[in-house]
Amino acid sequence: MSEQGLTTQWSASGSKSASTSSTDTGIGAAETRPSGDTTPWQSRWETLVHSLRDIAARYPGVGLASSLAAEDMVLTHAIFSENLDIEVFTLDTGRLNPETLAVVDAVQARYQRGLTVVYPDAEAVAGYVKEHGAHAFYESVPLRKACCEIRKVIPLRGALAGRPAWITGQRREQAVTRGSLPEQEFDSVFGLEKFNPLAAWTFDDIWAAIRALNIPYNALHDRGYPSIGCEPCTRAIRPGEDLRAGRWWWESSDSKECGLHAGNLSAIPVKVLS
Ligand code: SF4
């Protein structure tokens, strides 16, 4: 299915479910999403669990970096329900939506196993805001990437230190920067193996698994947010827009990575401001 087709479906799903899907906790309820899919997610699921178990055995200390988005909730469910020895951690940038933060509590309640929450250095954040302002990321790509560097990349580097490998929820159809995403690669930016076990999964596969397994998910997904980042840098998408159109929407599509997956960018270097 083309990305265009996916966006059309997303728009229909989001508008249809928006008025009925949120719970009091702000966590979306899987059963409220429209059904009728015919995607073979079950076969992908078996492969996914097998792959994760193999990764855990071969790379003790491996961790899943969760953005708390739908893909990462599928991975989290696989890890926690199969009791795999893989730590799941998430970066609280200090600019997340309440709905996103609520997912942390939802995971604890569902699985009785918590996420590790990683925070940025408070002094570095304060220094950036003091020098550039609280919304400087709108002014230029370098200033935006500098904010991502402080709030995401440096904390991620700390969370990955000493690990032999990490796991992400990236998929190929998410963006032009991810079209050739491999399922395993060496991450030369952070210096360890990197696994993208959902690389071949489609949007339909992800939501079929979430519906069938009643996996908790971010309520923003029901409000037109297929991709979710920090609150000031993410908006709902409109019909016909691609899945990551709501991320840093004021930038061109070939720069829409935050530095966590810098290897996806072929030409634009990350410039860190002093
Ligand atoms: S997504 Fe926006 S607020 Fe979040 S770290 Fe990047 S620039 Fe800063």
TrEMBL record:
[4Fe-4S] cluster binds at residues 147-148, 230, 233. Signal peptide: none annotated. Residues 64-236 form the Phosphoadenosine phosphosulphate reductase domain. The active site is at 258 (nucleophile). SUPFAM superfamilies: Adenine nucleotide alpha hydrolases-like. GO terms for cellular component: cytoplasm. GO terms for biological process: cysteine biosynthetic process; hydrogen sulfide biosynthetic process; sulfate assimilation, phosphoadenylyl sulfate reduction by phosphoadenylyl-sulfate reductase (thioredoxin). Binds 1 [4Fe-4S] cluster per subunit. It is found in: Cytoplasm. Residues 1-10 have a biased composition (Polar residues). Pathway: Sulfur metabolism; hydrogen sulfide biosynthesis; sulfite from sulfate. It catalyses: [thioredoxin]-disulfide + sulfite + AMP + 2 H(+) = adenosine 5'-phosphosulfate + [thioredoxin]-dithiol. Its EC number is 1.8.4.10. Keywords: Cytoplasm, Iron, Iron-sulfur, Metal-binding, Oxidoreductase. Catalyzes the formation of sulfite from adenosine 5'-phosphosulfate (APS) using thioredoxin as an electron donor. This is Adenosine 5'-phosphosulfate reductase. It comes from Pigmentiphaga aceris. The gene is cysH.
